[in-house]
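Limitations
The structure tokens in this dataset are predictions for the assembled complex, not deposited experimental models. Users should treat interface geometry with appropriate caution, especially where small molecules or nucleic acid strands are included. An illustrative entry is reproduced here so readers can see what is and is not provided.
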Amino acid sequence: MHIIVCLDDNNGMAFNNRRQSMDRVVREKILSLCKGDRLYMSGYSFAQFTEVAENIIVDENFLSAAGKDDFCFVETCTFSPDTAERLYVFKWNRVYPSDLKLSFDIEKSGFALLESTDFEGFSHEKITLEIYERESI
Amino acid sequence: MRRLNNFFTLLMCVFSIAACGQQPETSDADKSYNELVAELQNSSPAYTNAAYTPINDNSPLFTADDITTESFEYYSELDALQRCGVCIASVSTDIMPTEERGSIGSIKPSGWQSVKYDIVDGKYLYNRCHLIGYQLTGENANESNLITGTRYLNMDGMLPFENMLADYIKETNNHVMYRATPIFSGDNLVAGGVLLEGYSVEDNGEGISFCVYCHNVQPGIVIDYSDGTSKVAEENLSKKETTQTGNSEEKGSNEENKEKTDENPQTVPIVTENEQGSDGNTDTKYILNTNTKKIHLPSCSSVEDIKEGNKEETSLSKEALLLQGYTPCGRCKP
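Predicted assembly:
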């Protein structure tokens, strides 16, 4: 499974059951990453996708429903690092309030950084996309 | 910038404009904003190593009449003790600043003390802390919007919320109701904290909704809120931390630098060579990649990969570098 998350400088994901931030350029990149493969997310996440995408599947239990090669966009729930083969981490390079954080240290959980790219968002000066892949044992 | 200078005008404005949103959910329908403020003045939540504490189940207490898609900002007049009161705004791109922040050094908020501690990031215990952040309404030296706030309150308590609002508004072009209420107990000159409420209007709070108490504390420092005096906490004295009262000679240049760090740090350079000199600290703390704007520990394995032309040693604090737009290396995590 390929998991996509957005994090602030404190590894925060959400506050008061709401995402910390969003950016239309991030959404475009998410759709681009999936290249038409199935992209699972919650109804809450889907509400921010004004972009037309037939590969989006809305399911409140999407982490259970998604298959090995599917993508999951996770915003307001935790997940185990064991569920992911690849992680796509969008870093806001900002500090926001948070009460939901990524529950594990990515590199200490067996992932290796493959790629890191900075880009300008619509409402964020600099967003960093880091791609991690599970290291083979 | 659309500013309302008296409360009557504010009321007229708020009542005359059709509220487009529904009233935010509240945990206690009978609890009003005024009751909550009175409760907090009598007994504020204890600080438990978190810069902010959710209040009222994190539900803001704006009424339907408060909520409006008409941009405005309102700042209470100072009270008899020269203390700030509630500030409220319907923030949108209409009133967000388009220029870099100006000087606010002329303002001396109630309880203001110029004092430095080695254990405080950036040294200075107090900032002139905007109640409504500069990045939201572009207020500079407005005495009704600046309180004596610790570095911790400013950077860890309030700034994250201001960032969240600012980016949400830029992304959506929506309005956000924002209310910052300094909580003073009795005749104290320094607020114990700030009640912050936010609510996104056009999407009925789906994007932004919170109600938190930001603690005006500084870990390791004990503050006398009656007058702003302070001392190192007992448990920190054993670490040989020193307290220094800022002298007037030093204050001039450093005040200016500090003032620029109070708010909107992403756009304003802050610490100058001059300040480094005054701190007497020239040891290398970090290695910078001036191209990628990353901060590395000197021992980081990535340092050897940095091109010489992009490599720079610095003795600045991490906080100061973050304010200059640098971000920590994900590998060495400085």
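Some entries come with short summary sentences. For this one: The radius of gyration of chain B is 21 Å.
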